[in-house]
């Protein structure tokens, strides 16, 4: 009777369909879950890389604690106390197990918990990254938009020249040049050093200006270049030509229709660049003597402080993962077609 396959479904197939619908996740929730799982996998691989890289460097914490004039017996005893004489696999599994329980270890250099050191310095790095982001957006996005509006004119050539200069110059070169210029032009300006905002707000803002410029100017150069390219592509679209044909000026069409449609690629690049600010802070914080995560990373590397170095590397990886997720979530708000394609 049911040879044609058109009969009623079996109870087993009906139950399977109900269970499948019950455990089905909304598209956005499923997307976030996939990205979180992928991010955890990346962090796991990064933990292995960080653990292995710091041990490839010459020396170890026992050598640093014992001093350069210690004998082999003293260094061996310290290495045993620190667990450095155990197999690397066992050391990694012990560290990973403590990490999963929220224990980042203790600094062998000053005896403070690693999490406490990060909490002390992270606000300074975040403040610097926020200030640099403001600098980059204030000059990069308007300059790229105006350059596209005045394509081939003097402002366009100047903007492209500034963008190429910013892309070709390393951030630490910007930092050194700004320190030299500020020291000569405005000797009273705090070109080096850092004052917490809670102590002296005005002095804190002054000490943040130069490092924010050193980080924000190269980032703004990237935003300017991509914004100009995206806007030029938008000007070739039919909907913008229609807006111009209906009587809207080029500036009005840009503000109403062009900026939002051109900002998609810019947001992607900006997200990756903003994540890179934390990595670039390693250079800038040492140039301007800012007690942040970058300076902590360099100091821990020099002191062979394994726990601190590994935690800083994982923190940098976590910033990249979170920023990529934020960019992916912002895209559908800018262009709904992106959300429909997921």
From TrEMBL:
Pfam families: BPD_transp_1, BPD_transp_1_N. This is ABC transporter permease. Gene3D superfamilies: MetI-like (1.10.3720.10). Belongs to the binding-protein-dependent transport system permease family. Keywords: Cell membrane, Membrane, Transmembrane, Transmembrane helix, Transport. Residues 122-331 form the ABC transmembrane type-1 domain. InterPro entries: BPD_transp_1_N, MetI-like, MetI-like_sf. It is found in: Cell membrane. The chain crosses the membrane at residues 14-33, 40-58, 128-149, 161-189, 209-227, 311-334. Its main location: membrane. It is a multi-pass membrane protein. The keyword Transmembrane applies.
